[in-house]
């Protein structure tokens, strides 16, 4: 008998923070990311800085990739 058994398959996790002091730039980045990232399953977080630049949106970013989501959660808490 098995109780409390769970299995998880992980292909890695990417985390990114995109920000600007200018509210309008942040909103522009939001629109581009909603279209290019959320609606396109082949786009990765690491691709977004160059995609934003190609769409003339300049925001600061910090992205990183991890082998497991638990590592990513500990990074994002810093």
Keywords:
18% strand; 78 residues; alpha+beta; 3 helices; two-stranded antiparallel ribbon; elongated
Question: Any overview of this molecule?
Answer:
By secondary structure, the protein is an alpha+beta fold. The protein has one domain (14-76). 40% of the residues lie in helices and 18% in strands. It has three helices and two strands; from the N terminus they run βααβα. It has helices spanning 23-38, 48-54, 69-76, and strands at 13-19, 60-66. The mean pLDDT is 86.
Task: Present the secondary structure layout.
Blueprint: E1 13-19, H1 23-38, H2 48-54, E2 60-66, H3 69-76
Antiparallel strand pairs: 1-2
Strand order of the largest sheet: 1-2
What value does the average pLDDT take?
Answer: 86
Instruction: Characterize the overall form.
Output: elongated
Order of secondary-structure elements: EHHEH
How many angstroms does the end-to-end distance come to?
41 Å
Q: Helical percent range?
A: 25-40%
